[in-house]
Amino acid sequence: MWKKVIITVAVLVVLQHILTVLYIMGFHKRIYQHYPGPCRIIPEIDSGSENIALLSNGLALISSGCNPVHMGFVLDNEILNHQGNIFLFDFNHPEKNATKLKLTGKDFEYARFSAHGIDVYEDKKTGAVSVFVVNHRRDHEVIEVFQFDHKSLTLHHKKSVIDPIMRSVNDVAAVSSDAFYFTNDGYATTFLARNLENFLMLAKGNVIYYDGKKMRKVVTKGSGNNGIAVSPDNKFLYVAHPVGMIINVYERNRDATLRLVQVIDLGTAPDNIFVEPGTGDLWLGCNPVLHRLMDNFKNKTLTAPSQVLHVKWEDPTRVTHGYTLSEVFLDTGDFLSTSTIAAYHQSTKGLLIGTVVTKLAYCQVNAF
């Protein structure tokens, strides 16, 4: 009797988990394409535009050449051979295309650069711009720190931040010229173990705070912790969870620890988070059909849908209260495949939409 009950319960648990995975993969979803205005592809970029950081003068820095093999994906050979780069796009002149920045530094190895997450910190007193880039080197997970020289269009390498706690780094959010938060989207580093971790949806990810000298966990667990961003006033931190289809909102304490204050349910898989400087609103690059994203990784010629969501706060000073969630952009993947980030420039109403391993799009936002 008890043996049958145990077997039945076990079968039901396994079945429920399989159905949950199928739901997250988006097999049931249909795509109804719409754009916020005219859009075009930026021609220089075809190795991804995984993340975008915006400077106060309207210049956007774009990370390209991400190789996400560490996350357990089966990848197209072309993706495996992607070369990491940082591109610049000027929102003030959207008719122009992207420019590849020069990367210099005696201790920086360009050949081992695989750019993923990116963020910037502008020193209001000196005007100095620090740039933080997640680098998936073959031997280590690294966060590279650069100084941006606008005149020469150069990123001067300052240092490489490496620590054993950096298992599978996804994104970075700077809070000063030295300090930052970053996400680990998982723990396992071998292909088989990471796939098992992903399938079982084990909460092996975390959020780490680095004060310029030491690292410590501030969120001890999470499944697939992905994009991370800080509010304009530095009081709140946002973390994207593609598996849970949510954004976690944390309040920052004085000691840099975090307190969860809100969970935003999206119903789709968010990747990276862009915080609009003037309003604090969130712009989210999302992947609504994850099984097609996996297909795109295996074969770059296979497309996956792209989606952009906008979270508008009812009161930007009190993000623990109400918000309005809107869909800004949705594409079948034929125009833009596998969106990851959407960076909005308020004064020009321009929108850059990045992707994991393919192209970069610019849209004029007329309405949504």
Give a short overview.
This protein is mainly beta. It has helices at 2-25, 77-80, 191-199, 290-298, and strands at residues 39-41, 51-54, 59-64, 85-90, 99-100, 102-104, 115-122, 129-136, 141-149, 154-161, 169-174, 180-184, 206-210, 215-219, 228-230, 236-241, 246-252, 258-265, 269-275, 282-287, 306-313, 323-331, 339-345, 350-355, 361-364.
Give me the side-by-side strand order of the main sheet. Answer: 6-10-9-8-7
Strand content: 35-45%
How many β-strand runs?
Answer: 25
Which blocks of ≥5 consecutive residues have pLDDT under 50?
none
Number of helices: 4
> What structural category do the secondary elements indicate?
mainly beta
Q: What string gives the helices and strands in order?
A: HEEEHEEEEEEEEEHEEEEEEEEHEEEEE
Keyphrases for this structure?
368 residues; mainly beta; five-stranded mixed beta sheet; four-stranded antiparallel beta sheet; 12% helix
Task: Note the topology.
Elements: H1 2-25, E1 39-41, E2 51-54, E3 59-64, H2 77-80, E4 85-90, E5 99-100, E6 102-104, E7 115-122, E8 129-136, E9 141-149, E10 154-161, E11 169-174, E12 180-184, H3 191-199, E13 206-210, E14 215-219, E15 228-230, E16 236-241, E17 246-252, E18 258-265, E19 269-275, E20 282-287, H4 290-298, E21 306-313, E22 323-331, E23 339-345, E24 350-355, E25 361-364
Parallel strand pairs: 6-10
Antiparallel strand pairs: 1-25, 2-3, 3-4, 4-5, 7-8, 8-9, 9-10, 11-12, 12-13, 13-14, 15-16, 16-17, 17-18, 19-20, 20-21, 21-22, 23-24, 24-25
